[in-house]
Each structure stands twice: as C-alpha cells, then as structure tokens.
Structure prediction request, 88 residues.
Amino acid sequence: MTETDVRFQAATEAVKQLDQKPDNDTLLKLYALYKQGSEGDVSGDKPGFFDFVGLAKYEAWEKLEGTPRDQAQERYVDLVKALGGQVD
Prediction:
C-alpha cells in the first residue's frame, strides 16, 4: 500500500466524522473523487433520467474520466482536509 493509499483510507474515515454535513455539490465531488480514486474511470450503465441522484453521481464521476487514481485520491484527501477532516 502506498503512502497515498494510506492517506486516502484515512480520509474515507475522517469524512464520516465531519462536524457538519457538506452541501450537495461538495458531496458529489467527494463521491466522484472517491469512485475515481478507488475504482478508476466510470463504469456501468448510466442511470435513467428519472433517477436524479444516481444520474448526478454518475455524471460527476464521468467528468473525472482519465484522472489518474493517485491524483483523484490526493484531491479527495485535500477536500476532506478543507472540510475540517483530520487526515494526518
């Protein structure tokens, strides 16, 4: 496991301990960065038009297509830290 992987895992735990729930846009960014950092480029069928939440998540993740896994992990860690999460 790399140093980036360790920090990413710590951030996934720290985000659960935030004092305040982030707004919806920030939650989408967290979701997309988490998926890109853990699974890579978007996969699976795109949700239907009436699955608003699923579609928003899919499209947020899709925007990160081509972003290297380690870069997505670092951006996730940085965002969690900016939200007040204790990562280090």
Notes: The chain has one domain: 3-82. The mean pLDDT is 95.
